[in-house]
Design a protein that fits this description.
Bact_Lucif_Oxidored; about 15% strand; eight-stranded parallel beta barrel; Luciferase-like domain-containing protein; TIM Barrel; globular; about 325 residues; Luciferase-like_sf; Luciferase-like_dom; oxidoreductase activity, acting on paired donors, with incorporation or reduction of molecular oxygen
Length: about 325
C-alpha cells in the first residue's frame, strides 16, 4: 500500500460569515493560498446556479485567473463546467488561453448538472422545456479542438489560439466509474464523487484498473483517477460533528468527520479499495479560519509535498 496520499480540494464557496457574498470570495482566495503553501495538489471551484442572495458565485470561471495569480504551484480549475449549457468553442478558447498563461496549472472538469429551467434557457439562449443532452458531443468537440487541431482547421476552418499551444488537464466528473469508456474516448481523466448520492460504497476497482490500462495503451501515459469526498477536519470527532451541524449541509454521505489521523486511516483504506491515485476533499467546515487549521493538520499528517507553515494573517 502506498502511504503517501495526494489530496486536492473542491470548494462550493459556502462560508458562515457576517460579510457579504464578496467576503466569501475573499475567504476562498485565502483558503486557496493556504492550500498552495501546504502542498495540496489541486483546487477546484464548482458551478451551481442557486436562487440565493448569499451565494459567492454561480459560475466561478472569472475567479480562476485571480487564484492562479495568487498561488504558485497548485492546479486551479472548474469542476465542473455544466458543459451541456455552454458552447464547446467558448470553453475550449477560454481554458486553452488560461493554460498557456499558467502552464501545467489549469484543470477543466465536465459535469452533467442541470440548473433551474429559466437559467438553463438563458445559458443556452434557447427556449425549451428540457435541454437535450449534448454533453458527450461537446466533450468530443473539445477533444478535437485540443488534440486534432490540424483536422479541425482543415475541415471546419477553426483554430483555437494559441495554435499548437498547451491544453488544460481535463476530467470527467461522475458519481460512479461506469462512464470510464466516455472518458477514454475523449482522453479525459476521471473523478468520482462519493458524497452526491446516498448509496452504499461501490469501489469499482476493476473498472478503474481497466480504464488506466486501456488509456495507457491508447495514449501512452497513465491517466489520473480520483475520488471526491466530503467532511470536516477538526481536533476531535465531537468538534467536527458540531461544525457539521453549523454548516447548513444536509449531505454528509460517506463523510469523514474528525482529526487528521482519521482522514489518514480512511483515505489509505479507500486508496487500496478504489485503486485511485488522488482524493478531492470537499471541506464542509463553515468557518474559514478553522478550514485553514484543518488544512495544516492534514498536510502534516498526510505528508503532502511543499509543506510550509501558514501565516493565518493572509
Amino acid at each position: 500500500m502506498n502511504n503517501k496520499i495526494s489530496l486536492g480540494l473542491l470548494d462550493f464557496g459556502k462560508r458562515n460569515t457576517e460579510y457579504s457574498s464578496m467576503g466569501k470570495v475573499l475567504d476562498v482566495i485565502d483558503y486557496a493560498i493556504a492550500a498552495d503553501k501546504l502542498g495540496f495538489s489541486r483546487f477546484w471551484l464548482a458551478e451551481h446556479h442557486n436562487f440565493s442572495s448569499s451565494e459567492a458565485w454561480s459560475s466561478p470561471q472569472m475567479l480562476l485567473p485571480m487564484l492562479l495569480c495568487e498561488t504558485e504551484r497548485i492546479n486551479i480549475g472548474m469542476a465542473g463546467v455544466l458543459i451541456n449549457y455552454y458552447s464547446s468553442y467558448e470553453i475550449a478558447t477560454n481554458f486553452k488561453m488560461l493554460e498557456n498563461l499558467f502552464p501545467s496549472r489549469v484543470d477543466l472538469g465536465f459535469a452533467a448538472g442541470t440548473p433551474p429551467l429559466k437559467i438553463s434557457q438563458l445559458l443556452s439562449q434557447q427556449d425549451f422545456e428540457k435541454k437535450p443532452d449534448t454533453v458527450e458531443r461537446k466533450m468530443k468537440e473539445i477533444h478535437d479542438f485540443f488534440y486534432a487541431e490540424d483536422m479541425v482547421a482543415e475541415r471546419d476552418k477553426i483554430i483555437i489560439p494559441p495554435y499548437r499551444g498547451r491544453v488544460p488537464e481535463m476530467f470527467l466528473l461522475s458519481s460512479s466509474f461506469n462512464k470510464v469508456d466516455k472518458a477514454l474516448s475523449s482522453k479525459l481523466n476521471i473523478s468520482k464523487s462519493i458524497f452526491h448520492k446516498k448509496e452504499s460504497m461501490n469501489y469499482q476497482k476493476e473498472e478503474v484498473l481497466r480504464y488506466k490500462s486501456e488509456f495507457r495503451n491508447r495514449y501512452g501515459y497513465t491517466p489520473k483517477a480520483s475520488v471526491a469526498f466530503t467532511g470536516i477536519c477538526a481536533p476531535s470527532e465531537k468538534e467536527a460533528q458540531k461544525l457539521a451541524s453549523m454548516s447548513g449541509y444536509k449531505n454528509f454521505h460517506n463523510a469523514i468527520l474528525g482529526p487528521a489521523s482519521k482522514f489518514q486511516d480512511v483515505l489509505l483504506e479507500h486508496q487500496e479499495n478504489f485503486g485511485v491515485d488522488e482524493f478531492i476533499f470537499h471541506d464542509a467546515n463553515p468557518l474559514n479560519s478553522e478550514r485553514i487549521n484543518g488544512l495544516e493538520s492534514l498536510s502534516e499528517k498526510l505528508i503532502l509535498s511543499n509543506h510550509k507553515k501558514v501565516n493565518h494573517e493572509v
